[in-house]
Design brief:
The protein has 3 helices and 32 strands. With 412 residues, it is mainly beta. It starts with 5 loop residues before the first helix and ends in a 22-residue tail after the last strand.
Length: 412
């Protein structure tokens, strides 16, 4: 081979060096700018990393030349050692974008139910649950999470859903088999209101209390009279059926409602509630007060009447306080010789006036009716038995054993 002249070798060497410099930098008026220095400045001026992925938007001058430079994450291709998994993902395809930066848009993280994290497409995950029964349209309850990370609404409930849930005693027409009788509330109709039992339709017939579901109870008929039930001019005593649901008017007649007599004087109760009296009047016993009454009773020298409001008014002799009744509400009054007794709605008896034979000291019992003699009193128990107290010199206060429907004490 022929040797080249020395000057030619020198020129060739300079050409190669210029080529290298042109690849590694820009020629600007004879000044060479280092790519490495420029990239170093880019990094120092705000570039960062995220799982090894550069966030520098400045395109390296040598990007997309197929050569992976130190400041490039990739260059048209991905190294075999790099993948979605090495960058913290669970699967997917890692690629290189036009800026020679990893493109992780096709990388995925697995959604694992039970990992305690609320992943995509999960409604909940274990204890991680941002929902409530109320947010799902229910009234109350405790929301849960299934083993498939879906909401468990089985413990959520609402009133009027036709199901008796916890905290409800009923729901709509569902009473759980309960009735007025099963709840020890007597008879009537049990209902449901806001998922709680409504007992307003239940009543105890025979307790001498006129409930809203009763037409009558014992001697209580509300504002009903023979006149209101049969017509103008009818008087008499109404009777109540055994179930407190019907009023018997068979004893209603035209005329006076009641009459009672004692020592030389008599009084009668008219259908309009007024009282008329006649006979001896030495103590004013035949001069009744104004107003209306529902029942009257004659004593030895006095008279007493029961007002519509349950109070008692008396007139005539008051020598022993027999015409000064106790204050309270009563359902019956019965006058004795010189004393008076009244029956209260709770079945207890109160007496006042003369007490020489303990006739004004009733037993601690309950009664449905009472009757006063001259010096003794008898009461009818709800069982039909009769009990008496006071004078017993002729065994008038020692009734026979048995069951009775009514009671009336004689004078002695």
């Amino acid at each position: 081979m022929k040797k080249l002249p020395l000057i030619l070798l020198f020129l060739l060497s300079c050409g190669n060096e210029a080529t290298k410099k042109k690849k590694n930098g820009n020629d600007n008026n004879g000044v060479i700018i280092s790519v490495n220095n420029q990239r170093s400045n880019m990094t120092n001026n705000g570039s960062g990393s995220n799982n090894g992925v550069s966030t520098n938007n400045v395109v390296p001058p040598s990007c997309n030349d197929g050569v992976l430079d130190p400041d490039e994450q990739c260059d048209t291709q991905i190294r075999e050692t790099e993948s979605c998994v090495t960058l913290g993902f669970d699967s997917g395809t890692l690629s290189c974008d036009e800026n020679c930066v990893f493109d992780t848009t096709q990388c995925e993280r697995a959604e694992i139910c039970g990992n305690g994290q609320l992943d995509n497409n999960e409604e909940c995950d274990g204890e991680v649950n941002t929902n409530t029964c109320q947010s799902e349209g229910f009234d109350r309850g405790q929301i849960g999470c299934t083993d498939r990370c879906t909401l468990d609404l089985s413990n959520c409930n609402s009133c009027n859903d036709g199901r008796i849930d916890e905290g409800e005693s009923c729901d709509g027409n569902q009473l759980g088999g309960k009735t007025c009788s099963s709840e020890n509330l007597g008879m009537g109709t049990l209902s449901c209101s806001t998922c709680q039992l409504d007992t307003s339709g239940c009543y105890q017939c025979g307790d001498n209390l006129l409930n809203t579901a009763e037409l009558c109870d014992g001697a209580l008929f509300g504002s009903k009279t023979c006149e209101s039930e049969r017509g103008v001019g009818f008087t008499g005593m109404l009777k109540c059926s055994a179930n407190c649901g019907q009023i018997d008017t068979s004893d209603c007649v035209k005329g006076f409602v009641q009459v009672d007599v004692d020592n030389h004087h008599s009084c009668a109760l008219k259908s309009n509630g007024s009282v008329v009296c006649w006979g001896e009047n030495n103590f004013g016993q035949t001069t009744p007060p104004s107003g209306t009454f529902t029942q009257i009773s004659a004593g030895g020298f006095h008279f007493c009447g029961l007002r519509p409001n349950g109070s008692i008014a008396c007139w005539g002799s008051d020598r022993f306080g027999q015409a000064t009744p106790n204050i309270g509400t009563f359902i019956q009054v019965s006058a004795g010789f010189e004393y008076t007794c009244g029956l209260k709605a709770n079945g207890r008896v109160e007496c006042w006036g003369r007490n020489d034979f303990n006739q004004t000291i009733p037993p601690i019992s309950t009664y449905t009716a009472i009757s006063s003699g001259d010096f003794h009193v008898c009461g009818l128990r709800s069982s039909g038995a009769v009990e008496c107290w006071g004078a017993n010199d002729s065994s008038q206060a020692s009734p026979p054993i048995g069951s009775f429907k009514s009671i009336d004490a004689g004078r002695w």
